[in-house]
Amino acid sequence: MRLSTPGGFATEVFLLEAPDRELLPVGAWTLVGDLRLREAWAQAGMPEPEHALWVAVPEEEKKLRTVIPWLEHWARIPLHRDATVVALGGGVLSDLTGLAASLFLRGIAWQVWPTTLLAMADAALGGKTGADLSAGKNLVGAFHAPRRLVACTDLLAGLPERHVQNGLWELVKTALIQGELAWAQELLQEGPLKVAWVERALAFKAGVVHRDPREAGERRLLNLGHTLGHALEAASGYRLLHGEAVGLGLLGSCLLAEEQGLKPFPPSLLEPLVKRLAPLAPQIAPWADCLPLLARDKKALHAPGASPDASTSQIQCVLPRPGEPAVQRALPPAAWESPHARLLALLHQESVRV
Ligand SMILES: NC(=O)c1ccc[n+]([C@@H]2O[C@H](COP(=O)([O-])OP(=O)(O)OC[C@H]3O[C@@H](n4cnc5c(N)ncnc54)[C@H](O)[C@@H]3O)[C@@H](O)[C@H]2O)c1
């Protein structure tokens, strides 16, 4: 099924069960695929192009050095500037392949076939590609939208349960950005994944990205849960997965919103949130470790020339509201101290209770 996207949107979006070879590029193409998907791809009857690269790239290797051999390989083939690269994998692989496609011959076309729930619901759409630097995640990258996104839910069959949960947090984020309490509650219930949830998330993100492709305003709402989330993810030494850290950040944002005088979320949302997040409590770093990371956040607003300083910087924070769209507010990093403490207390209480 082709999803409807705004007129002129850079990416055609398809949501299917089984992969369909008809959606592969017409003309010359190559593939960068996650090794874990090689068998499933072949079993689905999908072709493997000559010169395909099958790779295993862990989050720690989301680095520029990983894509250099790919670029050298394409240059040796040589891959023509009219060729298309197909990325088959999770967010790490699609961020890197998109980045490589943006660099090769100053930019060639690419398609993305996301294979994790997180990539289907979020990472693969929106044209942000990137790699990490030692100073932080996603500090280098390019906006380079894929021509086509093809999400095939059958490919999720082998995805480990922890990664299914991980992707679910980006869906909960999507619901909370829109103030969709009932949807957030449904997502937090135990039960099988629904394809309709992915469809809803893709449709929402396509609209936001189309209206604000360069993140000048509305697109910043997609960072809900990411401010505290990124700090917790880095402070855990990346033992927390991205989505898990976002989940913690979402609860933190609900608490911060209330402290900022916004309408509080009801226990019917907060209780299942706490219950789902409680197993992550041991991974929450102490406040002293989070503060410097928050001050260095990419969304921190510093005076020109000033170095990141927790006492003077402000961060663009996204605050959710029940029943209404989330709002943005510039706040000092210290504003997160109390939500961080409450988050820890709530999750510890819950893990003792269970
Ligand atoms: N570009 C964006 O807008 C954007 C948005 C959100 C997140 N991201 C990035 O996404 C990355 C996280 O992506 P992720 O959660 O998909 O993790 P991931 O790409 O590391 O994949 C998770 C694991 O699952 C394996 N895997 C992938 N698909 C599988 C399948 N179908 N069956 C079995 N195993 C499979 C992978 O090999 C990997 O070990 C982060 O680097 C984050 O920065 C990017």
Strand content: 15-25%
The tally of structural domains comes to 2
Number of strands: 11
Mean pLDDT: 94
What's the CATH topology name of the largest domain?
A: Rossmann fold
Keywords: Metal-binding, NAD
Pfam families: DHQ_synthase, DHQS_C
GO molecular function, one term: metal ion binding
Organism: Candidatus Geothrix odensensis
Gist of the model:
This protein is 41% helix and 18% strand. The chain has helices spanning 38-43, 64-76, 91-103, 117-123, 161-177, 181-188, 195-211, 226-235, 242-259, 267-277, 287-295, 337-353, and strands at residues 12-16, 29-34, 53-55, 84-89, 109-114, 128-133, 136-143, 148-152, 300-301, 314-321, 324-331. It has a six-stranded parallel sheet.
Task: Note the main attributes of this structure.
354 residues; Rossmann fold; Dehydroquinate synthase-like, alpha domain; 12 helices
